[in-house]
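Budget justification note: compute hours in this period were largely spent on complex prediction jobs such as the one shown. Inputs:
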Amino acid sequence: MTTLDPRIATRLKRNADGLVCAVAQQRGTGEVLMVAWMDDEALHQTLTTRRATYFSRSRNRLWVKGETSGNTQQVHDVRLDCDGDTILLVVDQTGPACHTGTPTCFDADSLL
Amino acid sequence: MTTLDPRIATRLKRNADGLVCAVAQQRGTGEVLMVAWMDDEALHQTLTTRRATYFSRSRNRLWVKGETSGNTQQVHDVRLDCDGDTILLVVDQTGPACHTGTPTCFDADSLL
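Corresponding output:
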């Protein structure tokens, strides 16, 4: 049972797994840090604690970003897109966002 | 049958529908414009034409962004994330990115 505000919950368009896509962007620079997923409870915790919290599909549980690495995300804005299936988080990232140690998950290579 | 370069195709981690997530970001400002989906052919066309091309889940077909509205995206970079399931497009957006007429799909409201 989630405690997400029902006024927000009714606006979400979840996928078959009950998740919405979440894009984390660095405040100020606009750098796109990573893309992950949220269930209702992850969104609730993100909104109330202001620490980015996702739903880990591999571990099948809530995942407070940085809970083990310390590379947390302080949340400054949470925006829902036009059709309700994607959330944009504007954050201050502590340390590298990517588990590989790079600043973002998109640093490895360009396909062009 | 897609013509996507097999060296790229082998690196993609597609969802159950054969799609990867794609985030479009405005070059220069870093503004996150929209999130959509790509199959292999959409990625191939994006890489070769430099016009952002997605797979429309509602229409179940390739969708060249702006093909009817004229609000195209000229692609300057295409980056694959660390685990191969998300693509970041750095684009020059012509006109509003959102079908609602707003500059981005995240302009409507903040949940905080």
